[in-house]
Amino acid sequence: MEGDCLSCMKYLMFLFNFFIFLGGACLLGLGIWVIVDPTGFREIVAANPLLFTGAYIMLAMGAMLFLLGFLGCCGAIRENKCLLLFFFMFILLIFLAELSAAILAFIFRENLTREFFTKELKKHYQRNNNTDVFSSTWNSVMITFACCGVNGPEDFEAIPHLPYSSLEKATPEACCQRELQSREGMFVNKEACLSGVERFQNRQGCYTVILNSFETYVYLAGALAIGVLAIELFAMIFAMCLFRGIQ
Question: Membrane spanning segments where (predicted)?
Fold first, then answer.
């Protein structure tokens, strides 16, 4: 009976680690896609050090889970105590790190409000100054998502216009409609846009556009994160049970 229970644990351990292996492969693929994607994300990531670091952390985590799942599968099938102990300690560290990140994200979620982004935009945005990381990132976001400001073009009324502009309230070039949503895309009518002709401007705020674009994915990512944490927890339990059961 004990042998049957040990065998059952071994195959359950293999199954859980196979899911970790697949999760690591998906995370690795997603990290690579974000960095090399030609539709605008690469430019946004490269312009923002925080996103740039986050993308490579995602790559590292994906590679680590990929390797960890592989080692866990090998340790379970071969009943290797050394591999199982290494797996348990390693996945425990990852589990605690992910749990800490989730708690911090929940605590600081109020920093992702519309009012927070509007305040930061009005405080730091320098229009077409592409040497400024904050401005360059915002311009990339507005071009990629065909939006303007956090709430709309009115967000820029309090921001000083370009020194060489004769307009009292110049609209940033990033808010002008383009034939292709990238920095290389041709303007539909740049002069009319900067003169305030609304039909040549992207009038919708980026907060609403991005929220609508990623709302489904946010819930999916949250469900996936909970699933990954549950799988890791069960994998640790089975690893310890299997470790103690091997003679």
Answer: 12-36, 56-77, 84-108, 217-243
pLDDT tens per residue, range 147-159: 898 888 888 876 6
Q: Closest Cα to residue 136, out of 65, 47, 50?
A: 47
Asked if 146 and 130 count as a contact pair (C-beta separation under 8 A), the reply is no
Is residue 152 within 8 A of residue 205, CB to CB? The reply is yes
What 8-state DSSP symbol labels residue 186? P
Strand partners, 178: 187
* pTM, to two decimals: 0.53
What's the CA gap between 86 and 60, in Å, rounded?
Answer: 18
Bridge partners, residue 187, by sequence: 178
- Give per-residue pLDDT as tens, 114-131: 888 888 888 888 877 767
